[in-house]
Design goal:
Layout lengths: L3 E7 L3 H12 L5 E3 L13 E2 L9 E2 H14 L3 E3 L3 E5 L5 E5 L2 E10 L3 E3 L5 H5 L5 E2 L2 H4 L7 E5 L3 H10 L5 E5 L9 H9 L3 E4 L2 E7 L8 E6 L5 E4 L3 E4 L3 E3 L18 E2 L3 E4 L2 E8 L11 H21 L3
Parallel strand pairs: 1-2, 1-8, 2-5, 8-21, 10-17, 11-12, 11-17, 12-13
Antiparallel strand pairs: 3-4, 6-7, 7-8, 9-18, 14-15, 15-16, 19-20, 20-21
Helix pairs in contact: 1-2, 1-7, 5-6
The structure holds NADP nicotinamide-adenine-dinucleotide phosphate (NAP).
The site of NADP nicotinamide-adenine-dinucleotide phosphate has 19 residues, from helix 5.
């Protein structure tokens, strides 16, 4: 029989690493399964200007690396693995992971959220051939080229602004005429000479499937119904994220968009009853704020709840 660990943390973004710092410091020797996207969303972003404590901002990957070091200093261990399945009916919980089986008394779910796609077949077949959801990963390939960014929130603004470092022109396409983006980000995009904002515009198709290289976009003005083509070499999606909670469907209450429902901030439930020792934090349970600092805050709460739970069951 495998050893039963006090705490297993799923995910190594801001929420998971904060939970790791707290549980490690409490002597629980947490094991962090780093997941499909180690470091989470901060590891593929650029300058983070709103995390308290860095008056001049800090690069996302550096912030994540610092948190990981901090957790490791107190005894957290890390595995490049992800959860395949878990049975939440029997405690301690048995986790089937990509590297084997683990038994855990508490489980902190910090599996975050992954980029959303438009879902067009042409978009899907051109991923990696001009279509991307990560400006910081792929922006470099579009030096001197014209590109488009889709979305009307902060992610889209951030991507558009970042991509002006490489692209000769960025056309930002948004399906409505009102933006979700914060005022400061929207104003920066509007003021940028190389960004053009086109509202009431949807992408109907990505062109270039046969050539295996994006050649342009088929667009539609939703107000007039007029269709037209835009010649671009790159298409970046900045249309939000989907929670990584599918593996818990049927065992944990999820909301209509698939986010984990929590009560008392981080306690998980099944048919309304609290699941003992299983906590959720960060973007996988937060459809409202989704900030690095709120993810860190809920990671801390999950860790404190895990500690309390272990004390109550005598560990
Ligand atoms: P978001 O605020 O949910 O915005 C998503 C945008 O994509 C919306 O404008 C939405 O349009 C559009 N969209 C969604 N599905 C679409 C589809 N199928 N086709 C076309 N457009 C679609 O997501 P986000 O921008 O990723 O931001 C998430 C959270 O992270 C926010 O709280 C944001 O403040 C935060 N964030 C902060 C920073 C920063 O402070 N530097 C950077 C990035 C993100 P509608 O408006 O029509 O729904």
């Amino acid at each position: 029989m495998t050893e039963t660990l006090d705490t297993v943390i799923l995910g190594s973004g801001c929420a998971g690493l904060t939970a790791a710092i707290y549980t490690a410091r409490a002597g629980l020797k947490p094991l962090v399964l780093e997941g499909h996207e180690p470091g989470g969303q901060l590891s593929i972003t650029t300058l983070v200007e709103n995390f308290p404590g860095w008056p001049d901002g800090i690069q996302g990957p550096e912030l994540i690396e610092n948190m990981k070091k901090q957790a490791a200093r107190f005894g957290a261990t890390f595995q490049l693995a992800h959860l395949n399945s878990v049975d939440l009916k029997e405690h301690p919980y048995r986790l089937q992971t990509s590297t084997g089986e683990i038994s855990a008394r508490t489980l902190i779910v910090a599996s975050g959220a992954s980029a959303r796609w438009l879902g067009l077949p042409s978009e899907q077949s051109l991923i990696g051939h001009g279509v991307s959801s990560c400006a910081t990963c792929d922006g470099f390939f579009f030096r001197g080229k014209e590109i488009a960014v889709v979305g009307g929130g902060d992610s889209a603004m951030e991507e558009a602004l970042f991509l002006t470092r490489f692209a000769s022109k960025v056309t930002l396409l948004h399906r409505r005429d009102a933006f979700r983006a914060s005022k400061i980000m929207l104003e920066r995009a509007i003021a940028h000479p190389n960004i053009e904002l086109r509202t009431n515009t949807v992408v109907e198709e990505a062109l270039g499937v046969e050539e295996k290289e994006l050649k342009g976009l088929k667009l539609k003005d939703v107000k007039t119904g007029a269709g037209y083509e835009l010649e671009v070499k790159g298409l970046f999606l900045g249309i939000g994220h989907e929670p990584n909670a599918k593996m818990f469907a049927g065992q944990m209450d999820l909301d209509e968009e698939g986010y984990i429902k929590t009560t008392g901030n981080v306690l998980t439930t099944n048919n309304g009853s609290v699941i003992p020792g299983v906590f959720a934090c960060g973007d996988v349970q937060d459809r409202r704020y989704r900030q690095a600092i709120t993810a860190a805050g809920s990671g801390c709460m999950a860790a404190l709840e895990a500690e309390k739970f272990l004390e109550a069951v005598g560990h």
